[in-house]
């Protein structure tokens, strides 16, 4: 995603007046393809893997709400940002994509080949989710 946005930003800034019109189309196609199989699928695959089974029914919809909220914000901000600075907007989303990629590489745990029990055990003691939900239940 980052590469296609970077290429698009450079093209729009320096080569837009040329007769090569296929570059933006290819960049957008690559962006949509990589986004669909990459970033956009992460919240949906995280729900059953990373949350304790006991709390999936609460945290799953919460994750969906948060993901859709940020999608909505990005969708609403894009036309406003493009109106003020088109090239800066593409560069901004490119940089945010790079930052998000680095963040996910560092923070998101690898779960390939692990069972649900092994994943839950690896988080045991690291997350205070049981205590947090206990406080919420007591407050209600």
From TrEMBL:
It comes from Cyphomyrmex costatus. This is Facilitated trehalose transporter Tret1-2 like protein. PROSITE patterns: MFS. Keywords: Membrane, Transmembrane, Transmembrane helix. Its main location: membrane. One of its GO terms (molecular function) is transmembrane transporter activity. PANTHER family: FACILITATED TREHALOSE TRANSPORTER TRET1-2 HOMOLOG-LIKE PROTEIN (PTHR48021:SF32), PTHR48021. The keyword Acetylation does not apply. GO terms for cellular component: membrane. It is a multi-pass membrane protein.
């Amino acid at each position: 995603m980052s590469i296609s946005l970077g290429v698009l930003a450079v093209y729009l800034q320096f080569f837009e007046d040329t007769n090569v019109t296929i570059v933006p189309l290819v960049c957008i196609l690559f962006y949509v393809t990589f986004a669909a199989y990459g970033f956009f699928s992460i919240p949906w695959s995280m729900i059953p893997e990373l949350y304790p089974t006991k709390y999936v029914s609460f945290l799953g919809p919460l994750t969906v709400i948060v993901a859709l909220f940020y999608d909505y914000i990005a969708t609403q901000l894009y036309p406003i940002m493009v109106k003020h600075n088109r090239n800066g907007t593409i560069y901004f989303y490119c940089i945010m994509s790079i930052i998000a990629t680095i963040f996910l590489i560092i923070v998101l745990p690898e779960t390939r080949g692990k069972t649900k029990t092994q994943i839950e055990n690896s988080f045991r003691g690291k997350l205070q989710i049981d205590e947090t939900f206990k406080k919420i239940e007591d407050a209600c």
